[in-house]
Amino acid sequence: MEIEIATIGGYEEVGRQMTAVRAGEDIVIFDMGLNLSKVLIHDNVETEKMHSLDLIDMGAIPDDRIMSDLEGDVQAIVPTHGHLDHIAAIPKLAHRYDAPVVGSPYTIELVKQQISDEGKFQVDNDLVKMEAGGTMAIGDSEQVEMEFVNVTHSIIDAINPVLHTPEGAIVYGLDKRMDHTPVIGDPIDMDRFAEIGRQDGGVLCYIEDCTNAGRKGRTPSESVARKHLHDTLNSVEDYSGGIVATTFSSHIARVKSLVEFAREIGRQPVLLGRSMEKYSGTAERLDFVDFQGDVGMYGHRKSVDRAFKRIMKEGKGNFLPIVTGHQGEPRAMLTRMGRGETPYELEDGDKVVFSAGIIPEPTNEGQRYQSEQLLRMQGARIFDDIHVSGHLREEGHYEMLDTLQPQNVIPGHQDLKGRSPYVDLAKSQGYKLGRDLHVTQNGNTVQLVE
Hints:
Shape: globular
Number of helices: 14
Radius of gyration: 22 Å
Strand order of the largest sheet: 7-8-9-10-11-18
Distance between the termini: 7 Å
Structural class: alpha/beta
Largest sheet: 6 strands, mixed
Helix content: 25-40%
């Protein structure tokens, strides 16, 4: 069976992920994401009102026109998890394919919300939920099957899809860390990865995320970040002024910890910002998390400002606002607070807890720097980098290669410079550039079996 892989997006940048695998006449697309930095550098861009071709031209979503070169039919569109760099192009591109969008339950709920916000295209693709551990037939040949393997990441309900073919398995390895003690959900299923590596035919190809490949050691568990956050908030328990926390709104495990620790230090947690309300509200509705007690969630500008007025009236020392804006996004809550555009008044000595790392991309780094300076100018004191990454470090990559023993490896999720540490790592394990280690770019295809 011919096996061909089209590397469509995410092979020259961090963002706008999209990869297609053709097995015989059947094609599966993995991820359709947005490069958020290409949007943030423009003022007031509303992507939901824009045409896909304009977004392609500005480098914001994958250029999927290479799909016309693949001889076969798309049978499924499979987002690995609910981050925007993996799902936000689905409303712009999915309608071009007569195929269902298949994902884990939480991911599909987020995709559904993305589609409902779309103002340019009618997206009628079926949305199919499949749990980790589930399988489904691909095409009519009964020779190709897709499986979801549970992984741990900085968002709940993440999976790595595996395409089983007569030539071996294709493992799409974006994005994960090896977390054996997660705060929410099950640990990464390394036992199943090991079984896939040992099965007949083995692993024909492994497509891997290179984000932290140049960092030594292992990525810590989310339980480590939880302990760090607990220590930080308890250290300011006696402070009577304002404490504000920010994290990835999609990081439900971290939000859960913030909510619990807020109560522990005698403060009422309040979730503020559109995306904070969306991700946490969806997770609670699907029973992935139970925040227990009274947690205010406010997304619209007016309701957020009303919540800020209530906090100021009843005393900042009684609340822990958990807000959007950890990357300094221009319209996010924390950025507005830094500019003095909300009823919440920061004062000398108030604490701002960044329970998030900086996404390693120049736009994010610049915006985050600006946000921190604005907060400091108002007297805020900053607690930085109370966080663990959602991506594998060096030792995790060694373990995955050892577990899967793939015949071919394709590094992705980075530009060329960002992939070079992974290339060196793979070469140290016997892989060779141009033979079984394929460094490719957006818009290319890799023919694995002719």
